[in-house]
């Protein structure tokens, strides 16, 4: 500003080394009205600030989007390690039953058995049948009627090795009996089995099954728990470890497992560390992404640049639409007067009375329901905002033209026989230009605000496209509001700077165009 | 004067009828409306009629099967006889719901106006009397900043600072969790606490306009001949400003404030929604999204009436305050 001032002042002394006479024209610097306006504008500090703000935002939005290495909807993903529940382990503390082949041992008899066991009886009766119960030790009970073995009750469970045929009752019974008696071999079904120290049941050196008190259930669909894993897990459980490593033999099968014990449910849950490929949602600002990453894995800074484009372009198009409509309607109304004026002004009144925000909300919701394509939706949005905005411009133009058309130059145009349309748009409207420029500049700010409000409410510009309003709408999630400032604060600041820039410049222009202003 | 008022009221009436026509057209165009949603719900019940039959039945029940113009005419007839219909969303008569929620909105509006006047008018005068001073620049910049702030962003920032970080206020609602246990005085205090952030939002965003309005008009008056005369007479600057200048600035000020009186009832749609304050704005927003035609129609018409009333009051006050103006 000061530089401009100096330029204007310095022109005359620099050139005029020789003395001019008092009435010499060269002593006076003559400025055109346009130059005067520009001079007044550039002397206004706020206006200059506004201009700088606008230039910065324009460069940011239009050049920035071109420089940034990322695309508008490029999504970034990341490998994260997550603890996923892998298996649940329960220690079997309930008595289980298995009836011998061809025998029955229903739940009512089981209840009778529990009663007898708890009373330390060796006999119980159900439905006139006498049962004898033999405590084999180690939580194994054999139940007989007479001399026939009816069932066994047990807590240690005989599991079949993967891929081996199901073991028969006789084998299971014999194996368990061998285990409680501390024996290492037994015969059942005519074959002789070995029971090793780890309670594996071997037939001719081949593992057929194993005995264990733990029940292991897979929590991941489609994953069968291998024997190896179970053994590693049991070892860890016996050693009271919190975590252990296990390699299932495949290439990236080495995982860490974490054991958590839930005392109330008496369950160990084992979690596996797995790495998952997910959107890098809400990543904090870093060198690669100065403003972090948003919910859908997109770079916030890049979104801001593209959002600025959308907001500014919408602002300009809307203002152009409303100015053109307003000038035509206001010009016609003001020039012709009479019933034309009356009619147009009543239309303007009707438009003034239609509450615009609720209207846009209703239309936005309607477009949501019709699933309008986001791009076409943006077009509708511009048309609608423009269509709702023209009455203000029309009123202003009409007011100016009403007074202008009474002036002499209009009589002159009439006398020279110039066409009516030319009279309105070539002679009257240019005289309204200053006011038009001011209202349009201020209007740009308010249109951008309106668009932002609608996008914020989710009714304006829609997701694949960014706009400052819909970037800020992330704040509707209160978790984002409280924890991820970098998602929404920068967009808000961009919005405020832009609107403020338009308002400062508009205000400066208004002062500059006003001939009554003192400076 | 009386003829002028009568003429204006009649014109307003005609404008209102056209406004309702436009509003009705838009509201009726709403697809995926309440009725359709309800028909989907009803038809998905086991053993229910198909969707189309439900839709037809519901449309008939709600009077939506009639042609648009006839529907509008019957709505208009009902409206002018004072029957505003039943809200679909809230399942009570529209007028009952309106009476229930308008109080909060009015209190907020009135508080906003009072605070606005207390803050903006003195600052505007100050800026005008010290034109182009640092103070003037500061006030003008602050006013423009207030106008430029997006309400939703400003409200979110306030919430983040005062509700989340400092924990002084709640982020949502009009009453706290322990509202029912409070004494009646405590209940009022609780509501007041919940209104602090919304009121700050509303006032900060609106003082800018009034401040600039005051400043512009004050500047215009300060350039008038009678101010120069007053100064020439040697009256103290204080008296010049507050006795001669400010009184004349009051003419446009009173006109504007009078014209904005009806809008005390219009509710702050965005702010109320952001803070979930159950005023007319938030209630209507919910109704609009639910496709509640009777409530939406009522609210939009109500807003239109308020605008018309505001214009009328402003014009009349203009003549009342300024004896030079004669209405014809």
The arrangement of helices and strands of chain A along the chain is HHHEEHEEEEEHEEEEEHEEEHHHHHHHHH
Radius of gyration of chain A: 44 Å
Can you summarize the main beta sheet of chain A? 5 strands, antiparallel
Number of beta-strand segments of chain B: 0
> Biggest sheet of chain B, open or closed, and with what strands and sense?
none
Helical percentage of chain A: 40-55%
User: By helix and strand content of chain B, what is the structural category?
Assistant: mainly alpha
Query: Rough shape of chain B?
Result: globular
3D structure, described in words:
The complex is a heterodimer of chains A (519) and B (328). Chain A contains 15 helices and 15 strands. Chain A has helices spanning 2-15, 33-43, 45-67, 107-118, 169-181, 227-238, 300-336, 338-353, 356-370, 374-404, 408-415, 420-456, 468-472, 478-483, 485-513, and strands at residues 77-91, 96-99, 123-126, 129-137, 140-145, 148-154, 157-160, 185-188, 191-195, 200-203, 206-212, 214-218, 243-247, 254-262, 267-279. In chain A, strands 12-1-15-14-13 form a 5-stranded antiparallel beta sheet, with helices on one face. Chain A has a 5-stranded antiparallel beta sheet with strand order 2-6-5-4-3, with helices on both faces. Chain A has a 5-stranded antiparallel beta sheet with strand order 7-11-10-9-8, with helices on one face. In chain A, 34% of the residues are buried. The longest helix of chain A has 37 residues, at 300-336. With 519 residues, chain A is of the alpha+beta class. The mean pLDDT of chain B is 85. With 328 residues, chain B is an all-alpha fold. Chain B is globular and about 90 Å long. Helix content of chain B is 75%, strand content 0%. Chain B has helices at 2-29, 34-43, 51-61, 68-80, 94-129, 134-148, 151-165, 184-222, 225-232, 237-260, 269-275, 280-290, 293-321. Chains A and B meet through helix 8, helix 9, helix 12, helix 14 and helix 15 of A and helix 1, helix 6, helix 7, helix 11 and helix 12 of B.
């Amino acid at each position: 500003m000061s530089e401009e001032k100096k330029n204007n002042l310095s022109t005359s002394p620099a050139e005029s080394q020789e003395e001019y006479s008092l009435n010499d024209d060269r002593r006076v610097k003559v400025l055109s009205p346009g130059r005067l306006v520009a001079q007044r504008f550039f002397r206004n500090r706020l206006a200059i600030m506004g201009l700088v703000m606008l230039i910065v935002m324009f460069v940011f939005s239009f050049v920035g989007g071109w420089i940034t290495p990322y695309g508008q909807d490029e999504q970034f993903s990341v490998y994260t390690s997550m603890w996923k529940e892998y298996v649940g382990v329960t220690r079997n503390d309930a008595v289980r039953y298995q009836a011998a082949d061809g025998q029955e041992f229903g739940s009512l008899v089981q209840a009778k058995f529990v009663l007898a066991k708890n009373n330390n009886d060796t006999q119980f009766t159900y439905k006139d049948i006498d049962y004898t119960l033999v405590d084999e030790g180690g939580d194994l009970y054999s139940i007989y009627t007479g001399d026939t073995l009816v069932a066994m009750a047990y807590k240690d469970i005989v599991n079949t090795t993967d891929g081996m045929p199901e073991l028969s009752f006789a084998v299971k019974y014999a194996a368990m009996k061998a285990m409680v008696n501390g024996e290492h071999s037994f015969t059942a079904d005519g074959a002789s089995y070995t029971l090793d120290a780890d309670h594996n049941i071997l037939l001719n050196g081949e593992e057929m099954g194993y005995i264990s008190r733990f029940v292991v259930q897979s929590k991941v669909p489609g994953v069968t728990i291998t024997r190896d894993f179970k053994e590693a897990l049991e070892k860890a459980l016996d050693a009271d470890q919190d975590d252990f490593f296990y390699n299932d033999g495949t290439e990236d099968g080495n995982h860490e497992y974490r054991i958590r014990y839930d005392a109330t449910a008496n369950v160990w849950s084992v979690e596996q560390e797995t790495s998952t490929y997910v959107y890098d949602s809400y990543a904090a600002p870093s060198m690669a992404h100065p403003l972090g990453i948003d919910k859908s894995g997109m770079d916030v800074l890049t979104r801001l640049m593209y959002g600025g484009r959308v907001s500014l372009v919408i602002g300009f198009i809307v203002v152009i639409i409303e100015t053109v409509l307003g000038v035509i309607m206001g010009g016609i109304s003001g020039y012709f007067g009479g019933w034309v004026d009356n009619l147009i002004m009543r239309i303007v009144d009707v438009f003034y009375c239609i509450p615009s925000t609720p209207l846009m909300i209703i239309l936005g919701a309607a477009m949501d329901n019709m699933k309008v394509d986001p791009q076409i939706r943006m077009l509708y949005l511009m048309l609608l905002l423009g269509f709702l905005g023209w009455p203000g411009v029309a009123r202003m133009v009409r007011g100016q033209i009403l007074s202008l058309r009474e002036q002499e130059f209009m009589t002159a145009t009439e006398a020279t026989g110039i066409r009516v349309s030319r009279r309105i748009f070539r002679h009257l409207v240019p005289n309204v230009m200053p006011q038009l420029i001011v209202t349009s500049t201020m209007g740009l700010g308010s249109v951008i605000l309106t668009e932002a409000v609608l996008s914020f409410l989710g009714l304006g510009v829609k997701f694949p496209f960014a706009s400052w309003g819909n970037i800020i709408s992330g704040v509707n999630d209160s978790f984002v509001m409280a924890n991820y400032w970098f998602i929404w604060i920068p967009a808000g600041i961009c919005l405020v700077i832009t609107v403020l820039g338009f308002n400062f410049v508009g205000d400066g222009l208004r002062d500059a165009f006003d001939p009554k202003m003192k400076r | 004067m009386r003829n002028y008022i009568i003429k204006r009221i009649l014109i307003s009436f005609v404008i209102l009828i056209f406004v309702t026509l436009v509003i009705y057209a838009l509201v009726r165009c709403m697809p995926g409306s309440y009725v359709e949603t309800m028909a989907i719900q009803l038809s998905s019940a086991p053993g229910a009629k198909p969707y189309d039959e439900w839709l037809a039945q519901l449309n008939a029940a709600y009077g939506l099967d009639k042609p648009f113009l006839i529907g509008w005419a019957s709505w208009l007839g009902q409206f002018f006889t004072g029957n505003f219909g039943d809200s679909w969303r809230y399942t009570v008569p529209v007028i009952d719901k309106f009476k229930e929620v308008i109080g909060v909105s009015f209190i907020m509006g009135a508080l906003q106006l009072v605070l606005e006047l207390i803050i903006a008018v003195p600052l505007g005068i100050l800026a005008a009397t010290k034109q182009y001073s640092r103070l003037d620049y500061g006030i003008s910049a602050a006013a423009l900043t207030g106008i430029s702030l997006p309400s939703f962003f400003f409200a979110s920032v306030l919430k983040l600072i005062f509700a989340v970080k400092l924990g002084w206020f709640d982020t949502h609602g009009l009453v706290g969790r322990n509202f029912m246990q409070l004494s009646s005085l405590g209940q009022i205090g609780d509501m007041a606490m919940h209104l602090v952030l919304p009121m700050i939002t509303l006032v900060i965003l609106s003082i800018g306009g009034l401040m600039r309005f005051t400043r512009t008009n004050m500047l215009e008056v300060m350039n008038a001949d009678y101010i120069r005369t007053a100064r020439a007479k040697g009256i103290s600057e204080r008296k010049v400003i507050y006795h001669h200048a400010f009184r004349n600035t009051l003419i446009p000020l009173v006109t504007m404030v009078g014209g904005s009186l009806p809008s005390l009832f219009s509710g702050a749609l965005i702010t109320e929604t952001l803070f979930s304050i159950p005023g007319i704005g938030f209630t209507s927003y919910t109704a609009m999204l639910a496709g509640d035609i009777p409530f939406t129609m009522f609210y939009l018409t109500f807003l239109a009436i308020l605008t018309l009333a505001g214009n009328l009051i402003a014009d009349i006050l203009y003549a009342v305050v300024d004896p030079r103006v004669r209405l014809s």
